[in-house]
Amino acid sequence: MTTSRIVLITGGNRGIGYAIAERMLADGHRVAVTARSGEGPEGSLTVRADMGDSASIDAAFTQIEAEYGPVEVVVANAGITKDTLLLRMTEEEFTSVIDTNLTGTFRVVKRAAKGLLKGRFGRVILLSSVVGLYGSPGQINYSSSKAALVGFARSLTRELGSRNITANVIAPGFIETDMTAALPEAQQEKYLSSIPAARFGQVSEIAGVASFLAGDDAAYISGAVIPVDGGLGMGH
Questions:
Q1: pLDDT (tens digit, 9 = 90+) per residue, 131-169?
Q2: pLDDT for 89-130, tens place per residue?
Q3: Do residues 98 and 145 touch, judged by C-beta distance below 8 A?
Q4: DSSP E strands: which ranges in the chain?
Q5: Could you tell me what percent of the chain has a pLDDT over 70?
């Protein structure tokens, strides 16, 4: 039986974030999600926040703290892509992805940290990607932002590990979501041929790992990168 916690999931209105929110609710946690638009699953508290704006993140936390109490589990899932090859990529296309995916995670985790320290408990779960370590053409901005989360989690582990706070990274592979469904069929077939499991992953399979990392059984795991990719990256 896992202890009930107050969980915040950024970008919890669709895809992987929504599935994690559903799973955390099923596990008996009190769940808040941030979203720029849309809503989290029924039973969750949806708060508006923009990962590029510290003030909006602060306001979201203040609202959650007023309704639920201090956040104990942070799942940093919100992210964007602006795919294009290096020679065509503008500086804005690079920096905006870094600002949302990496600096946005910094803003959220920093705002959560005081509460985690005060409560002497914390689970920080960062959503990276197989391409963070494996690489992907046309994704220099995205893969850089996702690779950086590994250093983030490991440094956070060294800073806060003695206070019963863990920080881990989930690196999903090719997961079936609205975003991936929009890819051309030929591209999907190409991806499929390189995955040893010979299938795409389900959002529930990412949610299961997040559930484990948030739970009591994962108390001695920190600074880990857990690939959920059907063998695609082989822990690159």
A1: 999 999 999 999 999 999 999 999 999 999 999 999 999
A2: 999 999 999 999 999 999 999 999 999 999 999 999 999 999
A3: yes
A4: 6-10, 30-35, 45-48, 73-76, 122-127, 165-172, 225-228
A5: 100
CATH of the domain at 21: 3.40.50.720
Say how far apart CA 32 and CA 46 lie, in whole Å.
6
Distances (CA, A) of 80 to 33, 67, 68, 94: 17, 29, 28, 11
Contact 170, 226 (CB under 8 A): yes
Token pair of 182 as six digits: 């929009």
**Number of domains observed in the structure of the chain:** 1
Q: What's the one-letter identity of residue 177?
A: T
Q: Is residue 235 part of a domain?
A: no
Q: Tell me how far apart the alpha carbons of residues 112 and 221 are, in angstroms, rounded to a whole number.
A: 20
Active site residue 142: yes
Torsion of CA 77, 171, 201, 38, to 10 degrees: 10
Active-site choice (18, 68, 142, 191): 142
Q: Measured between alpha carbons, how far is 37 from 43 in angstroms, rounded to an integer?
A: 17
With respect to residue 187, please indicate whether it lies within any of the assigned structural domains.
yes
Name 117's Cβ contacts closer than 8 Å, sequence gap at least 6.
Answer: 160, 163, 165
* Amino acid, single-letter form, for residue 196: P
Within a domain: 190: yes
Residue 221 lies in a domain: yes
The answer, as to whether pTM is greater than 0.85, is yes
For residues 183-192, average pLDDT? 86
pLDDT tens digit sequence for 23-34: 999 999 999 999
Domain range for 46 is 6-227
